[in-house]
Each structure stands twice: as structure tokens, then as C-alpha cells.
Write a structure and sequence with these properties.
Layout (H helix, E strand, L loop, with lengths): L3 H26 L12 H5 L5 H5 L3 H23 L3 H4 L22 H27 L10
Length: 148
């Protein structure tokens, strides 16, 4: 079972790695790729996070699809993972939260495919929902269809 110190170490490594990639993205984003010089304007590096606030805003359309996807994922994945007794049969120390993870599914079980299909479905459903909303907005009754 993972202790709080273990989880803190993993979180610190993830945060540090994310910060390193963010800084690398900020530096490489400002470099001209078609010239032979390096951007030495340090003021541009100080504003490298200007794009983040707009990126982190969750629009209403995204919220409308995110909440149902969360409930559907929990309704499918929690029973699939919880109903196994793999952790109980092995002589390992585990907590109740470990029963929700994929580690509670036995090796070679077909239930592992559920954990792969659900994220794939959501990956395909989000663009479909976004495209449907765009098309529905275009085809409102008060708007005329474009002539071909």
C-alpha cells in the first residue's frame, strides 16, 4: 500500500516534470525556427504564461459533456474494478481505495478491455458532441442554409 509520503513524492515528481515541460514549451515557442538567431528579448520570456488563463477556462459546452462523462465512467469502471478479489487473494497490503484501481483486476481477464474502451469512447465522443453543437448552431431555424 502506498503511504502518504510515497504519494507526496510522486506528486512532487509530477509537478516538477510538468513545470520543466512548461518552461521548455515557453522557451521553444518563442524561438524563431526559420531564422539563424536566438530570441534574446527577455521581456517575451516574462510573458510566456499569457496563454494559460484562456486555456484553463471551461466553456459551457465542455462542461455539459464533461459532467455526464464523469458519471458514466464511474458507473462503468467502479463496478468492474470493485467486484474482483484479486488483492484479497494475493498477500499484499491494500486499502479500500486500491479496490477501485485496475490492480484489482486479475491478469488475463477480459475486464481489462473495459478500462481501455471507456477512455477511447470518451476520446471519440467529445469531438462528436462538439461537432454536433456546431452544426446545430449553424442549422438553427432562423438561419438559412448556405446554397451550394
Amino acid at each position: 500500500m502506498a503511504t502518504l509520503a510515497d504519494m507526496g513524492l510522486v506528486a512532487a515528481i509530477n509537478i516538477l516534470t510538468a513545470f520543466i515541460f512548461l518552461v521548455a514549451f515557453a522557451i521553444l515557442r518563442l524561438q524563431p525556427f526559420n531564422d539563424r538567431f536566438v530570441n534574446l528579448d527577455f521581456k517575451s520570456y516574462l510573458r510566456f504564461l499569457n496563454w494559460m488563463p484562456e486555456t484553463l477556462k471551461m466553456h459551457e459546452l465542455e462542461l455539459k459533456i464533461f459532467v455526464p462523462m464523469t458519471f458514466i465512467a464511474w458507473a462503468i469502471l467502479v463496478p468492474v474494478n470493485w467486484t474482483n478479489d484479486t488483492l484479497q487473494r494475493q498477500n499484499v497490503t491494500y486499502s479500500e481505495i486500491d479496490k477501485l484501481s485496475i490492480s484489482n483486476i486479475p491478469l488475463g481477464s477480459h475486464k481489462v478491455t473495459v478500462g481501455s474502451i471507456v477512455p477511447y469512447f470518451f476520446h471519440a465522443a467529445r469531438p462528436s458532441h462538439t461537432n454536433y453543437a456546431t452544426i446545430a448552431n449553424i442549422l438553427k431555424p432562423d438561419k438559412k442554409l448556405p446554397s451550394i
